[in-house]
What does this fold into?
Amino acid sequence: MSDTTSTGAVRPASSLIDSLFDTRIFGLSLPVFGLFFAVMILAMVTDTLPNSMIGAFIVIMLFGELFGHIGDRLPIVRTYLGGGAILAIFSAATLVYLGWLPADVAESITSFMKSGGFLNFYIAALITGSILGMDSHILVKVGVRFALPLISAVLCAALFAVIVGWCLGFSAQDAVVVITLPIMGGGMGAGAVPMSQIYEQLLGQPASYYISLLVPALALGNVFAIIIAGLLNGLGKRMPSLTGGGQMMPGVQIAERQSQPTLDKLGIGLLAALAFYVAGQILGAVIPLHPYALMIILVAAVKIGGLMPNNVNDAAAEWFQFVARNWTFALLFGIGIAYTDLGQVIDAISITYVLIVFAVVSGAAVGAGLVGKLMGFYPIESAITAGLCMANMGGTGDVAVLSAANRMQLMPFAQISSRLGGALILLLASVLVPMLFGGSL
It folds into this structure.
C-alpha cells in the first residue's frame, strides 16, 4: 500500500519535470530558455540592457523564438495564418503599439534592423546562398518563364481593385494609384518612398503627403499577403495537385540542403554574401535599379556562367541554411518592431479600403497562379512568389510570406518579384499618374 502511494505521489512530479525538459525552444529546454529570458527581462527592468547590437539581438532572438514556438503550435494560426511567422511579427507590433516594450529597447532594435543593417545582412545571405546553391540549369529553366506570371499579377491586382472599388463607389484612379501601385511596389525603401517622390514631382504636393496615403495600403497589403500565404500553404496540404511542396515546377527540384555546415564553410559563405551585397551597392551607384535587383542579377550571372568555385557555392548555401534556421524568428520579430506600424494599419481600416486592399492582394495571387500554371509552374508556388511577393512589403515581406507559406527555398524568386517587379511598378507610376490625374491627387 505504501509503495503504491509513494509511487503514485512521485510519478506526477517526475512527469512534470520530464515534460519541462522535453519542451524545447530554440533547442533549449524550457527551464534553460526561461533562465535566459529572465536575464533579458531583468536587464530591461533595471535599465542595464546594452543599447547596442547585443541588447537588440538578445531581445529579438528570445521574443522571436518564444512567439514563433507558440504560433507554430496554435491550431488555427498554425494551419491557416502562417503560424510562428505571423505571430512573431504582429506580437512585436502590438507590444510597441501598446507601449509594453520600453521605448529605448524598441529604438535600439529599430536602429539594429535599419541603420545596423541586420535585415540587409539576412537577405544578403538568402539571396547569395539560395542562388549559388541552386543548379544553374534549373535557374535558367525557371527564370525565363517567370516574367509573364509577374506581369499578370500586376494586371489582375489592378483589375480586381477597379472592380471592387467601382462596386463600393471608389474611383478607378484612386484604386490604381493610391492603393494598387504602392502595394505592388516593392516595399518602403524601394517602393513607397521613391513613389512618393515621383508623385511630388508630377502632382505638386510634398512627398510626405503622398507617403501618408501610400503607407496604409502598403501595410495592410503586407498583412493580407502574409495571411494568404498561410492559407495557400494550408490549401496545398488539402489539394497536393496544386503545389510542388516548395518546388516551382514539375521536374525541377530546388532542394533544401541537408549537409552539415563546417566552421570553415560558414566563414566562406559569410564572406561571399557580404561581397555580393557590396557589389550590388557599387552597381546601384551607376545603374538606376535597386541594389538588391542588381545583386540578384550578378549572383545569377556568376552562377549560370560557372564563374564561382563549387566550394564557395556550397559554402554560401550552407551559410544561408544556418542564417535561415537560427535567425528567421528573430528577424520577423525585428520586422514587427521596426517596419510594422500597427497604428497605421488600424487608422486605415474602413470596410471599403480593406476590401480593395484585399482585392489587390487576392488579384495578384490569382493572376500569378493562373498564368504560372500555363507557364508550367505549380499554381501555389507561382501565386506565392510572383503574386504575394509582389504585394508584400519588399524584403521584409518576402521573409514573412515565405515563412508563413513554409517555402523559404523560394527566396530567389521572391526577390525577383520584390526588386525587379518593384522597379517595373515605379516605371508604371511615372507613366500612369500623369495620364490618370494630370492635376492633383
Remarks:
- The first strand starts at residue 24 and ends at 25.
- The chain has one domain: 117-326+338-436.
- Confidence is low (pLDDT under 50) at residues 1-11.
- The longest helix spans residues 207-238.
